[in-house]
């Protein structure tokens, strides 16, 4: 029997482990694909984590979309993380929730979930990352590493140097966010990132599955080199 490739291992890891290729679903910048369709295409392309992200909408509509994504992820054995919305994450028994700096406090969320799900949080600098780690976060989303157009009011780009400085001091996984492309993956991982989180690079591409596969291959190659 042939040994499993790194891409295969990425897609079959236990639900409580932090994946390396986080794909955020999107229905704001594009309306060609539903959240579930994007999730399905991303998983076929090698994504090992799906993050449902929708900032606005009626809660019942969001729940309906999220349930569809939940089903896609369950069938594929891929963890589902919900961006911002702890209530929705709990409602569908997601595998995790990802918080921003202005969402519910990390400590409050950890008390509520009582270890039942992963809790990640975006950290724009070392101070925020260190605080999150000391409070019990499962992982850090660090950035923006590069410039991004997916935020209406993006904060200052941190760059690879800052990524390295933070990753070297963390004992929990650091996921690089913002402006990540397949070509940038080797640099990002060589500067200490455990993985990457991607949204519009995949959702706005002509072929989300093929683009996602480029990310997966770039990560696989980087891990082999390391």
Would you mind describing this structure in some detail?
The protein has 226 residues and is of the alpha/beta class. It has helices at residues 6-11, 35-44, 59-76, 86-91, 106-113, 126-135, 159-167, 185-190, 200-203, 208-225, and strands spanning 21-24, 49-52, 80-83, 96-99, 118-123, 139-142, 174-177, 195-198. It has an 8-stranded parallel β-barrel, surrounded by 6 helices.
Supply database-style keywords.
10 helices; disordered N terminus; 226 residues; 8-stranded parallel beta barrel; alpha/beta
Write the layout of secondary structure elements.
Elements (H helix, E strand, L loop, with lengths): L5 H6 L9 E4 L10 H10 L4 E4 L6 H18 L3 E4 L2 H6 L4 E4 L6 H8 L4 E6 L2 H10 L3 E4 L16 H9 L6 E4 L7 H6 L4 E4 L1 H4 L4 H18 L1
Parallel strand pairs: 1-2, 1-8, 2-3, 3-4, 4-5, 5-6, 6-7, 7-8
User: N- to C-terminal separation?
Assistant: 25 Å
Q: Gyration radius, to the nearest Å?
A: 16 Å
The number of E-state strands comes to 8
Helix content: 40-55%
Tally of separate helices: 10
Q: What profile does the largest beta sheet have?
A: 8 strands, parallel, barrel
